């Protein structure tokens, strides 16, 4: 074993919409997790492997901490908290636009204190505030918890992200490569396709609908065209909890569904490197957020 090589497991934790998935994608320099300006975008734990000649960081992006209302949201919360106890380092993300420690962040701090984990505070979105406000926020949090480091960052502009990696590596033990360098995520291709479709729906639909949608790829096959070119045939379903939501997702004359499908197909083709024939149906399943057969897929 290389005595200078460090490796270990890191988890991102924070409230919804603090930028955990954006940060993960920034550090990886490619899209691993979907992002949208909607609560509860991340529903399960997503692993990504950040490799360099001197380290391997296995990062887990977890669902945002929120007040659970359904079996699904309770499962998401359990996933986020479970990951706190199973890693070498926790990165706690907060928003630089905060003026104080709000109830959601206070709950996370309380959980961190009970786990006694090594924790780095990452203050995200520093591009949106003045320096003096940032200093005040750093003081408030440093008095509330004994962080290993406090790193101001911007997940969108990359400011401070190199420093964050340096602070993480400092806390990692000497260890082996847990994954080969070719592996960069634990998500299957099917899961990534489902998430791409859901992301487009999140981006295009209004505030009420996204909470109640779930995407499932039912068929994923490859065939040859008449010109002997490879093409992927993908059949998928967007499940929603209300019949009225189904109408919104489809849109007038199918316009919204076409918009979601076109944007999804374009990104899926980039992912697979081949032509894609994508079909999306919309079905109503009012109770899917409470059904164990659906919810168990989000346990991580």
Overview of this structure, please?
The protein is of the alpha/beta class and 300 residues long. It has 2 domains: 6-171, Rossmann fold (3-Layer(aba) Sandwich), CATH 3.40.50; 189-298, GMP Synthetase, Chain A, domain 3 (2-Layer Sandwich), CATH 3.30.300.20. The chain is 36% helix and 24% strand. The chain contains 9 helices and 9 strands. It has helices at 20-28, 71-84, 103-115, 131-144, 161-171, 189-204, 243-250, 255-272, 292-295; strands at residues 6-14, 46-52, 55-61, 89-95, 119-124, 149-152, 214-224, 230-240, 275-284. The strands form 2 sheets. Strands 2-3-1-4-5-6 form a 6-stranded mixed β-sheet, with helices on both faces. Strands 7-8-9 form a 3-stranded mixed β-sheet. β2 and β3 (55-61) form a beta hairpin. The chain is globular and about 60 Å long. The relative contact order is 0.14. The model has no long low-confidence stretch (mean pLDDT 84).
Separation of the first and last Cα atoms:
30 Å
Number of helices: 9
Tell me the count of domains. Answer: 2
Which superfamily, in CATH terms, is the homologous superfamily of the largest domain? P-loop containing nucleotide triphosphate hydrolases
Determine and state the CATH class of the largest domain.
Answer: Alpha Beta
Mean pLDDT: 84
Instruction: Report on the biggest sheet.
Output: 6 strands, mixed
